[in-house]
Design brief:
- It is a single chain.
- The protein is of the alpha+beta class and about 600 residues long.
- It is built from 17 helices and 29 strands.
- It has 3 domains: about 80 residues, Ubiquitin-like (UB roll) (Roll), CATH 3.10.20; about 80 residues, Immunoglobulin-like (Sandwich); about 325 residues, 4-Layer Sandwich (Deoxyribonuclease I, Chain A).
- The strands form 7 sheets. Strands 17, 18, 19, 20, 21, 24 and 27 form a 7-stranded mixed β-sheet that branches. The chain has a 6-stranded mixed β-sheet with strand order 3-2-1-6-5-4.
- Helix 10 runs parallel beside helix 11 and helix 15 runs parallel beside helix 16.
- The radius of gyration is 32 Å and the shape is globular.
- This is 2',5'-phosphodiesterase 12.
- One of its GO terms (biological process) is nuclear-transcribed mRNA catabolic process, deadenylation-dependent decay.
- InterPro entries: CCR4/nocturin_mRNA_transcr (IPR050410), Endo/exonu/phosph_ase_sf (IPR036691), Endo/exonuclease/phosphatase (IPR005135), PDE12-like_N (IPR048821).
- GO terms for molecular function: metal ion binding; poly(A)-specific ribonuclease activity.
Length: about 600
Amino acid sequence: MWRRLRSALRRLRCSPAVLLAGGGRPPAAAAMERAVVRCVPSEPKLSLRFVLPDGSARHMQRDQAEPLGRALARIATNAAKGPTKAAKKSKKARAEGGPAGEAAVAVPSVRLFSRDGEAVAEEVPNAAAWQDGAVLQIGEAQYRVERNPPALTELRLPRSLLAGFPVCPKVSAEFAAPQHCLFRWYREQRPAGGGGETAGGDGPAWVEEPGGERVFTPNNAMVGLRLKLRCTPGDGEQRYGPPREVESSGPVEAGPGACTFDSRHLYTKKVCGQGSIRAVSYNILADTYAQTEFSRTVLYPYCAPYALELDYRQNLLKKELAGYSADLICLQEVDKSVFVDSLAPALDAFGLEGLFKIKEKQHEGLATFYRRDKFSLLSQHDIAFSEALLSNPLHKELRDKLAQYPLVQEKVLQRSSVLQVSVLQSATDPSRKICVANTHLYWHPKGGNIRLIQIAVALSHIKHIACDLYPSIPVIFCGDFNSTPSSGTYSFINSGVIAEDHEDWVSNGEEERCNMPLSHPFKLLSACGEPAYTNYVGGFHGCLDYIFIDKNALEVEQVIPLPSHEEVTTHQALPSVSHPSDHIALVCDLKWK
């Protein structure tokens, strides 16, 4: 009876007629092995992966334009090579006078059937032949073709985990999107005897945590325990690929307690309404500057060394930024690796899309994030000030004026400062567009003249975008301007003019004097006013950061209060164990007039 049943099942598996009768879906489809095809139009070859009945895996690359028949012939040849080790043993036995092994394996019949059960013609190109749901038959074995199934290319957890702070995994996928993936979080089971493994010695036991969200916040009860994430890639069309797991490299550690931004989050629990825009500007202190001996001993000697570590500060920063529920975030001093590996994945999980502009000579730059369900990106117009000043006809008049002052000209052209400009369109009202600019001007206390030139280039460039390319769109201009409210740069932005005899033209002495009148057409207002300080370090405190808005089109709805002086100075100055940067974020709600 069992012999007859096996024979019947074998006939069912290999008969194309059965496939036709079932509309291209064999009765045992659920039990079919997978043949995974990766076929991307921009690449000349497709890849094919499957496992033969003997357990040997095959991974083939074939030209997309090649006729199917040649690929099938190659698969047949490959399949016949299955038990190669056994064949080699047999040959060796014969050479030594021992018993002969089995005869060479016959080349199996290999065919490809479409989803409706028709045999695919051998002259069809590979790219067209290998469709999702097709059935590959090798001898008696059948494989369900999965074309471009969702697949994870990277799954990583942050190195540092703090109780009470969100854990945002880095998820990179092909033919899938993180928002469509399935997430399951586990914590290590605390063993009864205090050891790290289960009684059987098979490694740690894991307990699943409820929720299944992309971002997970460990609580205080998890301090000392590691975390594990299981992620199943999905494409939003009910297709899922093979899951992957990743375990944290270390345990959850205790958080710092109250942070400077906790009270601010009370004002920003929800995303603001459609007619409003919550904007953030924040110099987040680049790791490349925080992790130097000079920083540890001279700039921030009051800050605990561990609180200057990148992983620690990133924990605080991600919680702070996520808690603002912002629509626009403009960041300065963003390390490229921090943007790619930490901030972009974390803020993506909170609904924000990120753009990055690096400074040519540094490893840090600017980042602008916008809320995906409120805005779409129309265009980007980033520049490096020195390059634009040299080559763009837009700045010819300024370039000619500056040529009269070669010392200043040389200093301006040596700077690597950049301007990031993004034009966004409202997702709900396409007629509403906005020009979002972000910059970080030259830092030197005596560089007022250099900053005036840089801001003149910036405003001229923004004018070209907001007046010529997109006539009359409002401007939001954020950044670390390294300029106090008494400076020429602030006065110029605010009033629209700067006199040629302003004292900032001689900010670095007579030999670097450069007198020139400048003007711009915008009516700009500092949305957060003129706080006592936005930068607070041991040797200096002052207001250097601003969110300038087009007061003809936008008005301020609310300014989120800055941390109290007591909070800022709890650990003497910034950064500290409770604040990740030496600057303070500016946060305000704006609305269209």
